[in-house]
Amino acid sequence: MEEGKQILKVVGVTLAVYFVMKYLLPYVIPFLLAYVLVHLLNPVTEAIRKKLPWKKEIIVSVLLVALLALCTLLFYYLYCLLMGQIRRIALNFDYYYDCCCSIIDGCCRFAEQSFGIRVDAVRDFVYSSISHATDQIRVYIVPGVVNYSVKYLKKLMDVGLFLLMLFVAVILLMKDYDEMREKLQKYSLYQHFQHITQRMWKQGGMYLKAQGLIILVVTAMCTAGLWLLGNQYFLLLGIIIGLTDALPFIGTGTLLIPMAVYLIFRGSYGLAAGHVVLFLATYVTREFLEPRLIGAKLGIYPFAMIVVVYVGLYLYGPAGVLLGPVSLLLIMEVLREMRPEEDRGD
What is the DSSP letter of 319? Predict the structure, then answer.
């Protein structure tokens, strides 16, 4: 009987978390981010107020404007650079297609000469798959990248409205933040909410922060390394390789090693060695930073994390990469908060 109640409790909490993440979160995300920003910026504003006799909302306004201006300039520079590299790939697509075909032919000839294996069926299958993929790219991707990239800039208006709402929410919340917290502390529901968010921040927040820093460092290393190696798509490939490093059991070697093998086939042994060195440097960097930045992990097995990410992608779409693990962590912490106080292990 007791086991049945526990199962119903887990199912109920899981459904509630899914409903909140799927249907409620999109409407409250600006205000949730505003709360997080105020929580982070409140100590900074208090420190500045000790030196400058300004109101808290004025201080946080200056901080937000400076931060927004810096992020906007950085985003605009990276956006122009990235779109230029994507456009260059689109315009030279036929050349890269011919290079890919020549590599496939070379591998097939190598297999036939070395092992006496006829690979005509494999060659035909690979060519048909590549042809289908290239047709899809020509129809859906290339026209949009080459001719309509300006169209995508209009979507920035939605981002601008979101940032404006976030800006106003942060200022208004900062003004009454201390008073609101003092009043809300009287309610047990807020105390439970505070316990859950504090534990999530301590466990998941610090873990994600550390992982984000590692990904940023690895991405910067890949971008800089590819630039030094003379790769004209250094930013695009650097971002892609850096992001793959964040996936479980998939690292920078997933792309850098095949690139090195391709360069060996071309006879560019120096560049191939450079890609191997870049892979080793990023691998050592992650192995060095991870144990120092990440103390206690989430307590979730890597296999379970892959399952959670996959389910998150299925339930939430691309945002599920982040929302999947967050949902699992929220479910765990809500169930923990529902236990008797002496059994929580705080």
Answer: G
Q: Is the pLDDT of residue 151 over 70?
A: no
d(CA 30, CA 189): 22
Q: Pick the residue with more confidence: 253 or 2?
A: 253
Radius of gyration of the chain (CA): 25
CA pseudo-torsion sign 71, 74, 77, 82 = negative
Tell me the average pLDDT across 27-44.
83
Q: What torsion, rounded to 10 degrees, do the Cα atoms 184, 164, 315, 252 define?
A: -110
Closest CA to 174 of 28, 59, 51, 67: 59
- Rounded CA-CA distance 303/306 in Å is 5
Instruction: Judge contact between 93 and 138, C-beta under 8 A.
Output: yes
Q: Which amino acid is at 123?
A: R
Q: What angle do CA 243, 249, 253 make, to 5 degrees?
A: 60
Closest CA to 238 of 85, 34, 65, 13: 85
**In percent, how much of the chain has pLDDT > 90?**
1
What is residue 296's predicted lDDT score, i.e. its pLDDT?
46
